[in-house]
Amino acid sequence: MNAFRRELRTATGSLRTNLRSYSNHTSLVSAAVHRNHWFLSSRAFSASVDVEPSETPKHKPKASTPLRRSASASIPIRSNPTPTRSSIKPVITLATAERYLLSRLRSRLPDAQTLHDAWWVPHWGDGGEIFVFSNGSFVCWGLGEGEARRFAREVLAPSEVGRLKDPETEELEFVTDPTEKTRIQGDLIILGRVAPLEYSENAPAVSPGSPALPADTLLARYTFSQALSRSTALSGLEESLEDYLSSVALLPHSLEKTGKPGLSREALIKKLGALMKFRQGLNLNRENFSDTPDLYWTEPELEGFFKSMTAALEVKARTNAVNEKITYATEVQSTLRQLLTESSTHRMELVIIALIAVEVVIALIRDGPELWQMAFGSSHVEDQVSAPHS
């Protein structure tokens, strides 16, 4: 009996051991299956996520501008249309030259009129208007890029001075909504309520008969346009400066490797003249990038529009960056000019020494016998006179 109990106890323990082993094995298999299921589900989810963007590809914006960083701020306006809000229309800015001669536009734009620092074209194309500024840029409201380029080609080409190799562009959008306050939100301009002008003489001198866009926001559009034109003109200057810096980038390397700048004195002076032209265009022209136009000193609301657009486009920071690049390039070329000056001075000293040597040789050839007679002739005569006496 006791033997039977011992065998039964042994068999029970073995069964328990086997059951525990089977349970652990089952748990491991279950965990492995769970991990595989999670992995496959994750792969499937990842694949679905990876495939989804390819179905709805995102288009790269035509122009990369600082406003693109805050473009998401305009989503609430874009995604929530209201009955009082118009459709979204483009605002396109083009810079095609260093400057325009606005006096040449009068005969080509009979319907245009002067509006402070710009020529205002109240109608162009299909329901659009244009502001032309003397800094070589113009702003189109409600027109596509094709219409803007056609205007540049057909109207502005004869008045261009210093045509740019590639036009610079800035593209935003706008809506009109009389229930909203006029402002810029992200990359969207909202034309709505505006306060009355502080001084009536700042209003347009000639009221248009039927403008393409609401007349009550005309000065607001002009203000935004002036800020946009400065930014686009600055982009043209930045691009020209980059090309210039690329052309002189090898000067320090040439000086390091060969001890010579690799450019003549005349070429370096021309490069310095180009730098002076850049700095003049950046800081000293009437349409520079630092000063606030006189109109906005007397109109606080318009000044707010101008400064908000200027800040959104980072005009001040970009202007400082361009000035720093010009300063660095000027210092490098001033150093090279000093080296050329020292080299030319050394050559001039050698020339002077050579001229002195030639003059000495000529003097010896011309006056040599006389000098010889003066130096040695008297002692020779004395020797001949003293010889007979001896």
UniProtKB/TrEMBL annotation:
Transmembrane intervals: none
Lineage: Eukaryota, Fungi, Dikarya, Basidiomycota, Agaricomycotina
Residues of the DUF155 domain: 130-323
Similarity comment text for this entry: Belongs to the RMD1/sif2 family.
Name this polypeptide is given: DUF155 domain-containing protein
Single GO BP term: positive regulation of mitochondrial translation
Low complexity bias: start-end ranges: 68-79
Any Pfam family matching the protein: DUF155
Region (Disordered): 50-86
Superkingdom, natural source: Eukaryota
Recorded GO CC terms: mitochondrion
